Amino acid sequence: MMNEDVKQTKGECTCGCDCGCETEKDHECHCADSAQVEEETQAKPHEEEVCCEAEMNAEENGDSKKSFGKKKEKKEKKDKKDERIEELTDQVKRQMAEFDNFRKRSEKEKCQMFEIGAKSIVEKILPVIDNFERGLAAITDDMKDHSFVEGMAKVYRQMLTELETVGVKPIEAVGCEFDPNFHNAVMHVEDDSASENVVVEEFQKGYIYRDTVVRHSMVKVAN
Hints:
Layout: H1 2-10, H2 24-137, H3 147-165, E1 168-170, E2 183-189, E3 199-204, E4 207-209, E5 212-215, E6 217-222
Parallel strand pairs: 2-6
Antiparallel strand pairs: 1-4, 3-6, 4-5
Helix pairs in contact: 2-3
């Protein structure tokens, strides 16, 4: 009992630990601080673990967002590429259609130019045919067997044959009904032996080149 009083008087800790506290009150404070430090020490690894896990989740989320962003960007690039391909394909189709139209138009114009050129040549040849016909019509009966007349008749027939091969044909007139698309009526006559509006005489032959009239027939029409 005497020793305990001496310890309390000197301020030594009565709990028997080696904390070195002088009083019991100091010992309680020291023990409380030690418990708090121990709790903090035990809680710190858990907090660090939680922080690491949070950082890992954040990194995973970031990677996921980056991956999604890359996919989206790739998709946008792909869409732009497809749009460009469609645009170029449409341009090629339009150019091909324009070229096809140009080709058809050029062929049509070429044919028209050929038709016009051929028509103009035929128009210049027709007076020569008319002169052959006038010359052969003026030959008398005693001259028909002459070699010169026969030569002229052969040249005339050859010219008509060659013109026919390129599409030039004479227009039928005498005995046909008058047609203003092919005939040019320069005279009308009263003729009981012929029907009304029928060509009874041809003064000058008309010709057509394919489907185009080169020269109308100059005719006499019965009323």
